[in-house]
Design brief:
It is a peripheral membrane protein. The protein has 323 residues and is of the alpha/beta class. It is built from 10 helices and 12 strands. The protein is globular.
């Protein structure tokens, strides 16, 4: 199957005050299929949001390729970039900070339509409010007059205004109460089914990602360390980092400890490395509970460990074995 979006060897550096560089993304590669929800997970600071912003070209990548519609989004500008943004939209983490407090909801949702010269803006705004479950009276109100969940619905309506094919949802539910999170997650899933949307769902909450995603990519220190179908990754994680993350999430099944039948709990030791002074070898080796001597010197590649073109399991660990 030809992917809708292909990211290849994406790199992003940020300059530091001492003249050095901070490597936020270090060779990220993945494909997104049409109608698929890909979950991107990892600890805070691993590069998830930078990845989303780079795909949107809100940050310009330092290197690599982002292929969509036969064009490399990492290199285009002007009219081509404007057109790509009509087809790839973003939902930001903070539903209040991403909405202009001085504009009415009608203006906020209608702005993408105005930018791209779409007619019948008032009618489209009414349709979108219905679509995300908000009353028509919301159109005349300001963002501060809504709850957090309602504001995120407004942000979703704005993202859908010009009928995009891809949504990048960056921590779209992390600022919301649990009950509201489930409503927004269900809304995104319904929109995917109704419109065939493809979604890159970025989150640090693995229980949320498990609920909504078809596939999962686990990030650590700017790299993908494990990738595969959501069910297989959650049931049988292969990378030690993935295993540690999953062991900390209540209610997610995992490997058990002998006769007591309790889920294995993995507590990582050691300090998180300084992102400006990356360790040699495997980036995870200073914290890894299965570290061996080779891990100190050899950086593992993200390699296929089992599956085929549609069920591929990839893992960046020297000692990961097929299921």
């Amino acid at each position: 199957m030809t992917p809708l979006l292909s990211v290849r060897d994406l790199v992003k550096h940020y300059p530091t005050a001492d003249g050095g560089r901070l490597l936020a993304l270090d060779g990220i590669s993945f494909d997104l299929a049409e109608g698929e929800i890909l979950g991107i997970v990892g600890e805070s600071g691993c590069g998830k949001s930078t990845l989303g912003r780079s795909i949107m070209r809100l940050d310009t990548p330092t290197g690599g390729e982002i292929w969509y519609g036969g064009k490399d989004l990492a290199k285009i500008s002007g009219r081509d970039l404007k057109q790509s943004r009509a087809e790839i939209q973003m939902i930001f983490q903070d539903p209040f900070g991403s909405l202009n407090p001085r504009h009415s909801v009608a203006t906020i949702i209608g702005e993408p339509l105005a930018v791209h010269g779409r007619p019948d803006r008032a009618e489209r705004v009414r349709q979108l409010l219905d679509l995300v479950g908000l009353p028509q009276s919301a159109a005349k109100r300001l963002p501060h007059q809504f709850s957090g969940g309602q504001r995120q619905r407004i942000a979703i309506a704005r993202a859908l205004a010009i009928n995009p094919r891809i949504i990048v949802a960056d921590e779209a539910v992390s600022a919301l109460d649990v009950s509201i999170q489930s409503q927004i997650i269900n809304l995104l899933a319904e929109l995917r089914r109704e419109f065939g949307l493809s979604i890159i769902f970025i989150s640090h909450d693995l229980s949320v990602v498990r609920h909504i995603s078809d596939r999962i990519a686990v990030m650590y220190f700017g790299r993908i360390v494990e990738q595969g179908p959501a069910g297989r990754v959650f049931e049988n994680p292969k990378h030690p980092y993935t295993r540690a993350l999953l062991s900390a999430v209540p209610g997610i099944p995992g490997k058990t400890n002998g006769a007591n039948g309790k889920r294995e709990r993995i507590v990582l030791t050691g300090d998180v490395p300084n992102i400006a002074r990356r360790p040699g070898g495997c980036l995870f080796h200073p914290r890894c509970f299965e570290m061996r001597e080779r891990c100190r010197t050899d950086s593992p590649e993200l390699r296929l460990i089992d599956g085929d073109a549609t069920t591929a399991r990839l893992c960046a660990c020297h000692y990961a074995e097929p299921a």
